[in-house]
Structures are given as structure tokens and as C-alpha cells.
Amino acid sequence: MDFELSERAKDFQQRLQAFMDERVYPAEQLYVEQVRGGDTPHVHPPIMEELKEEARRRGLWNLFLPDPAHGPGLTYLEYAPLAELMGRTMIAAEATNCAAPDTGNMEVLHQFGTDEQKARWLQPLLDGEIRSGFAMTEPDVASSDATNVQMSMVRDGDELVLNGRKWWTTGVLHPRCRVLIVMGKTDPDAHVYAQQSMVLVPLDTPGLEVVRSLPVFGYHDPEGHAELQFTDVRVPAENVIAQPGAGFLIAQARLGPGRIHHCMRAIGAAERALELMCARADARETFGKPVSTRSNIRDWIAEARIELEMLRLLVLKTAWLVDRVGGKNARIEVAAIKVAAPNVALKIIDRAIQVHGGAGVSDDTPLAWMYAHMRTLRLADGPDEVHKLSIARRELRRQRGDEEPLL
Questions:
Q1: Domain final position from 195, 220, 241
Q2: Which GO terms describe its molecular function (predicted)?
Q3: pLDDT-based confidence at 405, cuts 50/70/90?
Q4: Into how many domains does the chain fold?
Q5: Do the Cβ atoms of 378 and 347 come closer than 8 Å?
């Protein structure tokens, strides 16, 4: 394994770092002020549009998609350190058109969409003109098992009729959200992994109701996490992505790369938290000495560096594998980083909060926001327990000498 960045990747890393230093970090406070100055928490602040325009001008656009037709065509290994830089702040991913859930939705449409679907929805997403949402999780079932999804999708002539409830549908409340990718059951009698389909549902379709915005530890993000009610929602049957029954397969393809993105951003957040912790420990004194002289604080700092270096290597190995053998053949590594990254980041962020005292739980630093989102990441894209189950199942079979299982 060789994790040395290509010259092209190094160039993008340097250019993105310059963009962060010159434009993104200085805009953080203004972004917060503009969001808070809106009539609702769900606004598109003017500063974001300025950052997006500047990112495009600098060629820092759609960095996530490994297709040179729609961006630089970076590999996952090349993109990984860029995602880490973006993870240091809440606004960089959107500024470069690399924010979830749009990245996953664009990958789905790019890989599985028809020409018409790509023209209507993918291109505006790639251009940053609209936003999107992904509706899979449901309030009435344990959605960590995607086969539990209950939303009904019944064929009626040339249309599908959707009925059911969804929640934690990220992106719906953004003012520019125009379309959802919705997962539901088109054939309850089919094989358990062939019952589900994914369907494009324009947000203004009659019968689709936004019930409420769900806060994350009290935070209402600008893009929102919505509960939705679908009541006799009719969409053309041609809005099915790929084919009926392919929903589970598409979900697996969608979540693999996204987990690498999430994990690298988690490392970026943890790196910034460590920097803040060190600066605060040097700047404050207790009982006549800088906090940084205390042995327990030095232990925290040392452990953070050790754990971050180990985690980064594991994530880079996973990206390297996905580039070479595909996400399907790197499932264990993808599962491992999805467990490790938010847990390591949470530990470091929590200790940084502790060193900051009351300031750490306020909005004077990004630490409280980081903690809320990292804690949520232990549930998003599959909870820790599901990923551990996959890893343990594979390890048991390997130790027994059994054949490779289907996970």
C-alpha cells in the first residue's frame, strides 16, 4: 500500500488549504450571523453563495466525484485528505459542492440514473443550483435494518403511489431543496433484498407534507432533518432509479463512498479540536501553572495524536482498497472506519470541551456543534452495532475457515 499523494492531489490540497485560510475560516462567523438573522433556521445565507462562486473560480468544485466529466476526477485516496480539510468547519463542504446528502444522491444518479433523470436532477445538483434529500429512515421501524422499510410504493398505471412516513431526511428544509430520493417497498412478496426500490420525488409533489424539523441536540441545521408524511403521493413510474427491486443494492453502493467522506471529515474536526485544546491549555492557568503542564492534559494530547494517526491510516487504507477493488470488496474496512472515526473524534472533542470549561459547551467555539454532529454520526449511515455485527460475522467465518459470507 502506498498512501503518497499524487502531485495532482498535493496541488488540490494546497489550493484547498489556501481557500480555507483566505475565505472559509474568515467567513465562519458571518455565516452564523446570517443564519441566525433569518426568519427560520433554514436559510441559504448570502455568504455561502459567495464562497461557492469563489470555489468554482478556483477549480475546487465537485471534488468528491471520481469522474473527470464532472470535476477533477480524483480517486478516493486523493479525495480523502481534501475531505479532512473540509471537516474542520461546518461550511467548507457545501462551499465546494461536496456536502451530504447531495454527494450520495449525485453518485446514485451518476451511476444508476437514466439520461432524463440526469438531465433533470443530476446536472442542477452538479452545478450547485439545487439541493436534495435522501429519505430512507422511518419512525415506526428499526431502520438500521433497511429490509424493515415499510413505505408502500404501489404501481397504478404509469404511476407509483407512495404512502408512509419518513424522518431524519436531511436536506429537505434547505430553501433550495427540490427533490428527494425515497426508498420504499414496491414488491413485498419478492426476495427480502429485492423488495425495495428508490424513487425520485420532487419536493412539491401533492401529498408530500413536511411535518416538522428535527433538532440535533438542540441544533436546527440550515438544511434541516425532517419528518415527512407521504399520503397518496403520485410520481411517474419512470422516476424509479435503475429498476424496481434495486433499492437495497443502490443503498449499499451509495453509503460506501459516503462513509469514507464522513470519516475523513471526522478526522478534520478532531484535528481542529486538538488544536483548540492545545491552545487553550497553553493560554489558561490553574493553581499558578498553565493547564498544559498538567500530566492528565498531556496524556489527553498524546493519546489524541496517537489515535488520530492510527485512524487516518485505517481510513486511507480503506480509500486505497475502494479505488482498487471497489466498495463491495472493502466492506469490512468501510465498516471499521465508520465505527472508529466518530468514536475517536468524540473522545478528542469531549476532552477539548473539558479543557475549555464553560466556553466549550457554548457557541463561542465550534466544539459543541462538532460534538453534536459527531455523536449523530454514530447513528447516521448505520449505527455502530450494525457495522460491528458485520465485522464480527466476517471474522468468525474467517477463523472457522468458512467461505466469504454475504454481509
A1: 241
A2: flavin adenine dinucleotide binding; medium-chain fatty acyl-CoA dehydrogenase activity
A3: very low
A4: 3
A5: no
